[in-house]
Design a protein that fits this description.
This protein is α/β, with parallel strands linked by helices and 259 residues long. The chain has two domains: 183 residues, 3-Layer(aba) Sandwich (Rossmann fold); 58 residues, Helicase, Ruva Protein, domain 3. It has ten helices and nine strands. The strands form two sheets. Strands 4-3-2-5-6-9-7 form a seven-stranded mixed beta sheet. Helix 4 runs parallel beside helix 6 and helix 7 crosses helix 10. It starts with 12 loop residues before the first strand and ends with a helix. It catalyses: adenosine(1518)/adenosine(1519) in 16S rRNA + 4 S-adenosyl-L-methionine = N(6)-dimethyladenosine(1518)/N(6)-dimethyladenosine(1519) in 16S rRNA + 4 S-adenosyl-L-homocysteine + 4 H(+). Its EC number is 2.1.1.182. It is found in: Cytoplasm.
Length: 259
């Protein structure tokens, strides 16, 4: 029986064999990898991964797809976690000694940013992440200071990860086709992130980009004096999108120094 994609779950199923092959090649799965896939859907990528990986986990919210997956694969090959990825404890997945988790998935575009932030808390336990996302979101993730795409998502994720846009995926590769281009992003956790209190960094970055047309001195008015902004190595007349990650970390450390 054909599964009808559900809008409330943001379902767009990848069906292009060439694109799937390119993704698997980029991931380069190995037999003993501790692999977890978010939103396996109709298992197009799952099936290809299991040709290399001895066992893997998937996280799926749609109960119909959960039942389908459990019927399709034996438990010794696939562990199906029937839950919302936004609430799932990725640290609960058993990982062999000396290894880290590898996370992959065609992420639902309607929850991509919250899901990326949820996953960030597990970064120290992760080897790498390969995701399909809306192209515009990936461009924001990897944007450099000075770019129009550079913003809160860029700063917060670049503090945690080294990221690169690998390739673009057109709408016709999916069923149903989304209205936007997609892209594959590779995310490798930074071994030693710049020392900083995450909540404070988030607060500074959020306030800075809430009025991105203004200069940073005005954006951060009430949080920092002009002298403090200068002390952090940031030019007060710069706009938020020109301030590098290091500048935001220095500002956060003025508010809440880390030991």
């Amino acid at each position: 029986m054909k599964h009808i994609a559900r809008k409330r779950f943001g379902q767009n199923f990848l069906q292009d064999d060439h694109v799937l092959g390119h993704i698997i090649e980029s991931i380069n799965p190995q037999a003993n990898d501790a692999m977890v896939e978010i939103g396996p859907g109709l298992a197009a990528m799952t099936d290809l991964l299991l040709r290399s990986v001895k066992h893997m986990h998937v996280v799926e919210l749609d109960r119909d797809l959960v039942a389908r997956l459990e019927k399709q694969y034996p438990r010794e090959k696939l562990t199906v976690n029937s839950c919302d990825a936004l609430k799932f404890d990725f640290g609960s997945i058993p990982v062999p000694e000396g290894q880290k988790l590898r996370v992959v998935g065609n992420l639902p575009y309607n929850i991509s940013s919250p899901l990326l932030f949820h996953l960030a808390q597990y970064a120290p336990q992760v080897q790498d992440q390969h995701f399909m996302l809306q192209k515009e979101v990936v461009e924001r993730m990897v944007a450099e200071p000075g770019s129009k795409a550079y913003g809160r998502l860029s700063v917060m994720l670049q503090w945690r990860y080294h990221m690169s846009l690998l390739f673009i995926v057109p709408p016709e590769a999916f069923d149903p086709p989304p209205k936007v281009d997609s892209a594959i992003v590779r995310m490798i956790p930074v071994a030693n992130p710049l020392p900083c209190d995450e909540a404070t960094l988030e607060a500074v970055v959020q306030k800075a980009f809430s009025q991105r047309r203004k200069v940073i001195r005005n954006c951060l008015s009430g949080m920092f004096t002009e002298e403090q902004i200068i002390a952090a190595g940031v030019t007060p007349t710069d706009r938020p999108e020109t301030v590098p990650l290091e500048g935001y970390v220095a500002l956060a450390n003025l508010l809440k120094p880390v030991a």
